[in-house]
Specification:
With 338 residues, this protein is an alpha/beta fold. It has one domain: Ribokinase (UDP-N-acetylmuramoyl-L-alanine:D-glutamate ligase). It is 36% helix and 27% strand. It contains ten helices and 13 strands. The strands form two sheets. It has a nine-stranded mixed beta sheet with strand order 5-4-1-8-9-10-11-12-13, with helices on both faces. A four-stranded mixed beta sheet has the order 3-2-6-7. The longest helix has 15 residues. The chain is globular, with a radius of gyration of 20 Å. It starts with a helix and ends in a 9-residue tail after the last helix. The relative contact order is 0.14.
Length: 338
């Protein structure tokens, strides 16, 4: 009976996704895909000659978290910086198409939009071209971005900081956002980047993957058994509410002192591609918390979403109906042990 009640609670949280809004702050990127066919090798170098057939665009970086949230039916504000260029306009168009509010996006005249162009032949990626400026935001652009963030924050139930180390989330901007959010009683969820986690002090929860957590703790290797030690070091150095270390296809671990660590095993039936699973976790976890779910409920739902995501090829959006069917067809049959 308890499991049935818990699953009913999860389904109720999913139903509330459409009634919440989340603010995503971070490094905005345009993911551009060039699709073509290759019938010969170039006479200039041993590489295929690709005849371009079509192209498509999707929001990347922090934009992928926002797209995942929109896919859940939640309201989304996105805050970041783009250039006054065609990729920036394409990105704004893609955000609008997904009903993601770009009113907090700043256009910088002297900064190009981060663009990652992937060249594919028969759905096989053969090259990626990155165009980016990862320098920290100048003071005037940071101030303008903070003003826009401040206008949106009262309208949301949670704030996400999505750091790709491309210059948007400077230490000063991160602390300003966290302080503002805390003053308004808004939870702050962080997908961190880099070894220095102290820049995120005061956040509600950090969600590094295993490699990121070990690096931040100064531990070499990729051993899941070292996750508790890494968490202990990070929590000793950084003032955080909780730390969630994601383990890819092996699930995730929650560290929330003084409670004992909690392990959430992967819900994936088979793993095809872990691309974008971290963004799926962040989107579902933030929407759940914004909807009033407990941290454990949010993580259970995020774990289910990650399990669905890695069963698909490429970056994918998990929708609430998939989660509902998964819970009704699998979790309710005793396949979840967390």
């Amino acid at each position: 009976m308890k499991e049935t009640n818990e699953n009913g609670g999860l389904l109720h949280v999913i139903e509330r996704f459409r009634g919440v809004s989340v603010l995503v702050v971070g490094d905005l990127m345009l993911d551009r895909y060039w699709f073509g066919r290759a019938t010969r090798i170039s006479p200039e170098a041993p590489v295929p000659v690709v005849l371009l057939g079509s192209e498509s665009f999707v929001p990347g970086g922090a934009g992928n978290v926002a797209a995942n949230l929109a896919g859940l039916g939640s309201g989304v504000y996105i805050a970041g910086v783009v250039g006054d260029d065609d990729p920036g306009r394409d990105l704004r168009s893609e955000l609008k198409a997904r009903s993601i509010s770009a009113e907090c996006v700043v256009t910088a005249d002297d900064r190009q939009t981060i663009t990652k162009t992937r060249v594919l032949v028969k759905n096989q990626q053969i090259a990626r071209i990155d165009d980016e400026n990862a320098a920290p935001l100048p003071g005037d652009i940071e101030d303008e971005l903070l003003k826009k963030i401040g206008t949106a924050m009262p309208n949301v139930g949670a704030v996400v900081l999505s750091d790709y180390a491309k210059g948007c989330l400077t230490g000063s901007l991160v602390q300003s956002v966290i302080e503002n959010a805390r003053s308004l009683g808004k939870p702050v969820l962080v997908d961190p980047k880099g070894r220095d986690m102290t820049k995120y002090a005061g956040a509600t929860i950090l969600t590094p993957n295993l490699v990121e957590a070990l690096n931040a703790a100064g531990i070499d290797g990729n051993d899941e058994a070292m996750a508790p030690q890494a968490a202990e070091r990070i929590l000793a150095d950084v003032d955080l509410g909780a730390l969630l270390i994601t383990l890819g296809e092996h699930g995730m671990m929650l560290f929330e002192p003084p409670n004992e660590p909690a392990y959430f095993p992967s819900m994936a039936r088979q793993v095809f591609d872990v691309t974008g699973a971290g963004d799926t976790v962040m989107a579902i976890l933030s929407a759940s918390i914004a909807a009033g779910a407990s941290l454990h409920e949010g993580i259970r739902l995020a774990n289910i979403g990650a399990g669905i995501s890695v069963e698909k090829v490429g970056t994918s959006i998990v929708d609430p109906e998939e989660m509902r069917l998964f819970i009704e067809g699998h979790v309710s049959h005793g396949q979840e042990t967390a």
